[in-house]
Amino acid sequence: MGMMGERGMAAGMMGRGDPTARMENRLGAMKAQLQITPQQEPAWDAFKAQAKKQADAMQSMRTTLFEAKGNAPERMEQRTQLMQARVAGMETMTAAMKTLYAELSPGQQAILNQQFGAMRGTRRGAPAGAQ
């Protein structure tokens, strides 16, 4: 088997229902918890758009990992390239988060801090209470 196995991570992440629907549910719950105001809506919309883009990229990554071909070094190189793309996506997501965060009230920031700060006890980093 080895690092993530032949089908490891990709196979484990696929087939768990509709990831787009799960993401929409999590974002809807987050927006409701934060009580986004009309003035904050543009920053929220930009954050949400980036989150969707990130989710699509992750789904593409999972598919690529699942369908990886070639010998072990070639597959490792594919994983390296995918992880580099993942880092770039996270940097863009961080920028969107910072923009949204700057628009939030201190109370909303506290809620967001709690949701993103305490990932223990949650499934794969999903906000607490999200499924």
How is this structure best described in words?
The protein is mainly α and 131 residues long. It is 70% helix and 0% strand. It has five helices and no strands. It has helices spanning 8-13, 19-34, 41-66, 72-103, 106-117. α2 packs antiparallel against α3 and α3 (41-66) packs antiparallel against α4.
Quick take:
The chain has 131 residues and is mainly alpha-helical.
List the helices and strands and how they pair.
Blueprint: H1 8-13, H2 19-34, H3 41-66, H4 72-103, H5 106-117
User: What gross morphology would you assign?
Assistant: elongated
Given helix and strand content, the structural type is mainly alpha
Helix content: over 70%
Largest β-sheet summary: none
**Strand element count:** 0
Sequence of secondary-structure elements: HHHHH
Average pLDDT rating: 79
Alpha-carbon distance between the termini? 30 Å
* SS element count, helices: 5
Strand content: under 5%
CA radius of gyration is 17 Å
Low-confidence blocks of residues: 1-15, 119-131
Oligomeric state of shown chains: single chain
Descriptive key words:
disordered C terminus; elongated; mainly alpha; single chain; disordered N terminus; 131 residues
